[in-house]
Amino acid sequence: MEKITAAITAIEGYVPETVMTNDDLAKIVDTSDEWITSRTGIKERRVLKDRPTSDIGYEAVTKLLKKTGIDPLDIDLVICGTVTPDYPFPSTANVISDKCGLKNAWSFDLIAACSGFIYGLTVGSQFIETGKYKKVLVIGADKMTSILDYEDRSTCVIFGDGGGVVLLEPNTEGLGVIDSIMHSDGSGRNYLLQPAGGSMAPPSHETVDQRLHFVKQEGKQVFKFAVTNMAEVSAKIMEQNNLTSEDVDWLVPHQANLRIIEATRVRMGLPAEKVMVNIQRYGNTTAGTLPLCLWDWEKQLKKGDKIILSAFGGGFTWGAIYLKWAYNS
Length: 329
Fold this sequence. Notes:
Strand content: 15-25%
CATH topology of the largest domain: Peroxisomal Thiolase, Chain A, domain 1
Shape: globular
């Protein structure tokens, strides 16, 4: 029996029309274009106004279905990586499925912060590899502006809104997801979290007054962990699959910080032209960064390209995926 792998056979993305530049931010918080650019590499980000995270997924999924001509009823499973769900429950994946008419799919959200997409891709690929399902959608989408404190310049300058979706289908040519390495360390919650809104600190006047429903992070600690772990796991998956820097066609790194991306590139021994970087346009869209990169670079990808996806997120969560691209655009 031929080995079945889970291949990405289509990709779509969505970013809101509203652009917030560094100069726009400087009007509402004590910062500047130079300060933000030198520390992060970000020049602007997108803002989703008066719409929920599910609409990011809806826009991307609708475009993907139209592009591929796939009947919504043929989708088996929907996984949505997000930390900004429409509601505590039901899951945003449920809402997206309803909006898109995916009536035969079951769906769920996956919370792994910035690693949400690679976690989702790893989970979704298992359902394809077993032969259980033929069409799985993996979404990474976040409306980070909904949980940003615009009085905290250390966090509000980093994030933006957006996301994307990939279609996974069976492949017997040796293309698709080849290997993955995933990690987590719950002690990282001390450095990067949304403190209130869950059972630890249910919503109250006090939690709102103390601004505990916004993202909080200790930047230096997060940077240190991210630089080390994202670089190491990327190098590890190359070693595990006997890949040299010449073998790797593309690195798709989580777009958190240009310095973290650069550290990962150097650790892997890759030239800059093999690294997808769009942080300057979108900022950190959390679970949305990796599908947005693939969407932006889709026309440059060739069948058989060897690609490493790498991410690090709150939790802490981190990991890397090695895949072979399955089609020519």
